[in-house]
Amino acid sequence: MNDSPTNPGHDHNAEHDAPILTAHRAGLIGCRGCGRVWPAAEETCHRCGAGLVPPDRRSLNGVWAWLIAGFIFYIPANLFPMLRTSTFGGLAGNSESTIFGGVLELLHYGNWFVAAVVFTASIIVPIGKFISIAWLALVAGRPATVHDAHRRLVLYEVVEFIGRWSMIDVFVVAILSALVQLGFVASIHPGPAAVAFALSVAFTMLSAQSFDPRLIWRGLPLRSRKDQDHL
Amino acid sequence: MTDTPPPAEPGPALKPAEPVRKTAARAVRAGSSLIWLVPIIALIVTLGVGWNAIASRGTLISVNFKDATGITPGETALKFREITVGKVESVRFTSDLQQVEVNIRVDKDLARFIDSQSQFWIVRPQVSAQGISRLDTVLTGSFIEGYWDGQADEQQTEFQGLEKPPLTSFGAKGTWIVLSAERSRGMTDGAPVTFRGLQVGRMQNLRLAENNEGVLADVFVAAPHDARLTSNTVFWDTSGFSISFGAQGLAVNVNSLASLLQGGAEFATLTSGGEPVENGHVFALQPSEASARENLFIDAANVLRLTMLIDESVKGLETGANVQYMGLTVGRVTDLASRTVDGPNGERIQQEVTLAITPERLGLSGDVTRERALDFVAEQVGNGLRARIASAGFFGTSLEVELVSLSDSAPAELNRDAKPNPVIPTAPGEISDFSETAQGFLSRVGNLPIEEALKSVTDMMNSITSLASSEDTRAIPGALRGTLDDARTTSGEMRQIATELRESGAAGQLRKMIDEASAAAEAVKLAAADVPAMVEEIDKAATSVAEVDFAALSTEAQGILKDVRAMIGSEDAAQLPRNLSDTLEAASGLLNDLRDGNAAGSLNEALSSAKLAADSISDTARQLPQLTARLESLAARAESVIAAYGDRSAFNTETINLMREMRRAANSFANLARTIERNPQAFILGR
Amino acid sequence: MQIEGTYDLTSGRGLIACPRCDALHVEHDLHAGETARCVRCNAVLASPRAGAFTRIIALSFTTIVLMLAAVFFPFLRISRSGFGNETSLFDVALAFSHGPLIPLTVGLLGAIVGLPVLRACLLVYTLLPLSRGRPPRAHAVGAFRLSETLRPWSMAEIFVIGTTLALVKVGGLATISFGPAFWAFCALILVNAASNVFTSATTIWDAIEDGGAHTDGRELLRERPE
User: Fold this and answer.
1) Which residues cross the membrane (chain B) (predicted)?
2) Which end of chain B is more exposed for a tag (fewer CB within 10 A), N or C?
């Protein structure tokens, strides 16, 4: 029953990562859902029922798996057309455009802003996410300074936040398809790329969710759960 | 549980940190009641919007149609005056599955105007005999159009939709009338109704009359033309074409091509005094304009019926025959019957003819009623008006009834009280016999003095023949011969001149001319009767003379050629030699002039004078027929010879031909000249 | 039962591990309005708010009402020279309802409509008795956990932004007019954001625990036990 003095501030901690006691070091596991700490052997949090997962690299398997799945689906999302437009029942033209084709078309029509938005949301962001998550998974647990760790944490939070918003493209397709149903004159239908893109975004979101940010702070050699018993 | 001592033993043991605690900048009061405003507001707004949407929804009406082509629930609009005022919500079958019930939600502010007078129809592309319409609905989609007036009568929510869009737009001012005919010839849906050729309405809604005895059609006559409709208006069928054969001859009458195909009707108001018509007034459609103009039974109620009793045969009189009065048709025969009457010699049969007279046609002024007409007739009967059968028609084969005033008729009275109609006294009929008429015609033909005409023609022809074979005619060739001798002399002189011209270095054409002249003489010498050749050569000489210098001269020569031909063709035998020698004298004068060296101008003058001479010659001598004919044939042969060289009509080509001939003529002329040179006597005496 | 301020490194009682960086902290009972943050990564550990539960409940009700409005009212209307098309949320989802795209339809509809409503209901279910000081319902634990799992997957606000983007694309071609559903959705975004501000998972878990749900015996007490 010690009352520990309040630590003055992070500045001290920011310089050294040693004084921070983590649950893993203490041989405990923290619940990611509710924060309660349990002994390392526990498997389920008794308060909130979430599974207790130690912050080790095995969780990275899930991250890689989902990431690769998301990347696989990203390819047809760009190759197949996103939208199919048919005017006058197909008499005046059937146009299909992929994501990139749509951006080019918007540029062609001088709609720079929307083109930039679409390009960012549909191409830059997903690729950026792939790269970011891959990098985070690669460097997780490697020795790093606290400064680096903070940066990586920021990156992780950005990726997690953006994750949902990549679905915008799918919603845009959905809205356009639903709206431009002017029968004979013009109608828009979603193409197969929409499904692929939605799946890609979903998998990437799952990948980001699977990533345990606590891994970022593991500057020490890793121990698996079994090893803990020997320490 | 195991202890996990921190790896770095020296130093204080790692302890769990205290969380950084921050108090909120301002204490958030437990204003829990405030937060409940949010869902409450949301609820109110939502309910408000929903309520508003429902309350302003408008009323639901249902319209039954035969089929719902082009109607999509949730999309098809109801339009009134081209503005969307409602939308189709759902489409169902009626309980007997015979029709489709379309439920339409109409805007609230308009819904109250939809009363029992409203009409609804579907607007979709239509292709019909009147043309293609409303193709724009292919793009915009079909819609339902409705019409109602601006007065809110009793509300109604169930309607029967029209099968087709009405031909006339509602709200237009005009009058609805009904046309009735026995058959539907000339009546089709949409057929135009015209007045003086101007379309004023359309037929629609063809149907059988209730008693199945005719066909009815509705016509909407638009204002202001409906003001012309009175109870005296007649309608007739303008479709197809009609042929009439009457006093003016044969007439084929066709209206526009449209009416030929789709029918149509025209109307005119022929007599005045009719009353204005109301909606639904029935007019009879007459088969043709002629029958319409003659149609008098416009107002069947106001017809004066009379009966006449005839003893003689009424063969040829049919119902529908005209009743004439003072040359105008005033009525028709409507019934023929026999009846037995008691007479002094027992029963006998009389023919009873019923006449229906239109009082207006009698020419009475003012308000014309049956009674007034009857009074008038009675009065006239007192003055000698009688009814009788008369012949009518082209050959007088058909009969009609005539009301004539016969001053010498026995006094009689109109029997007003007879049943069923008043009886008008009759006079003997004026029937002409067809056979008599025909015979009279033929006899007149026979009386024509044809024989004499034929005889005089024959005499004329005989005299012509005798003329042709008279002595004088035969003497012509001899006289011509003498003339030809003179021509020879002249040609000799010409030769002289040619020599001199040659010596003086004149154009070779002059020689050609002489050569041709000699050739012409040669030809004459060769065949004394070959007048045409000689003449031809003279022609050619003249032509070549023209050829000497200018193209204009050629034209002149051509003219001369023609004139000479004409001259030859119409020459009087006695005068010919003299005239020819005159001509040749003039020609020698010409040659003298040539000698003088004034070639062109003198030639021109000479030729023109020659032309004049030729003219005078032709003028003076035209009468001998046979000679004329013969000379004509000779000239024709000359022409055919020329024509034989090719069918070239241009002057130049003909000239080329002439030049070829001239060359030949020149050769023979040269021979002649040589012969003359060697043996002048032979020239005169013959070889 | 753990006395506040005491902790046991062996069993982990009285301690909180930062979900982000795994740093151990001593668990304290915070006052209303206070925020406890991790010393290392500054993540929020707990932030009880006064009346937070009530607020969350109210906002959840609002979410439900707005979602109903958004679903049943017309959403957008596009028209150009006489042709028009009005679309509601169903039409948007149905746009994908052709054969192999049906799963996408279900997913979209779920993400846009179903999840927010479900989360709202779960929150209400969990927090309603708690806000009145009564013991939580039987499945409150599972309900709240489900709600937290579903949180990143509810995409209502993305839908609205996506709609706006689509309208920008189409806006040049035709006339667009917004229906009530669109505004309901915009309000929904705001409500969602507000709800997130008031939601602190740790606090709610504490409340569930304090309220008497089946726990692990580690409720915090201020006093020492007898």
Assistant:
1) 34-54
2) C
- Both A43 and A74 in one domain: the answer is no
**Is A89 part of the contact surface with chain B (CB cutoff 8 Å)?**
no
Tokens 């199919």 correspond to A84
- Number of Cβ within 10 Å of residue B32's Cβ equals 16
Q: Closest approach of chain C CAs to the CA of B49, in angstroms? A: 8
Q: Is residue A124 part of a domain?
A: yes
Assess contact for C13 and C7: CB atoms under 8 A: yes
Has residue A230 been placed in a domain? no
* Run of H or E residues at B340: strand B328-343
* Out of C30, C42, C62, closest to residue B42 by CB: C62
Query: Which of B43, B46, B140 is the closest to C83 by Cβ?
Result: B140
d(CA B176, CA B174): 7
Range of the domain at A36: 1-54
**B450-454, B545-549, B555-559: range with lowest mean pLDDT:** B545-549
Give the pLDDT confidence of C10-52 residue by residue, as tens digits: 777 778 888 887 888 888 777 777 788 888 778 888 877 767 7
In a domain, A30, yes or no: yes
What residues does each domain of chain B span? 59-160, 174-294, 304-435, 471-685
Question: Given a cut of 70, is residue C157 above it in pLDDT?
Answer: yes
Considering chain C, what is the average pLDDT of its residues? Answer: 77
CB atoms within 10 A of CB B9: 7
Give the residue extent of every domain in chain C.
Answer: 1-48+200-226, 51-198
Burial B53-74 (b: 16+ CB within 10 A, else e): eeeeebbebbbbbeebebbeee
- Asked whether the whole model's pTM tops 0.80, one would answer no
Average pLDDT, chain B: 70
How many domains does one find in chain A?
2
Joined together, the tokens standing for residue A37 give: 């700490």
CA-CA distance, C67 to C181, in Å (whole number)?
8
C-beta of residue A48 within 8 angstroms of C-beta of residue A31: yes
Token readout for B269 is 């108001």
Average pLDDT over residues B322-334: 82
Neighbours of chain C (3+ CB pairs under 8 A): A, B
Chain B residues touching A219 at Cβ < 8 A: none
Same domain, A42 and A144: no
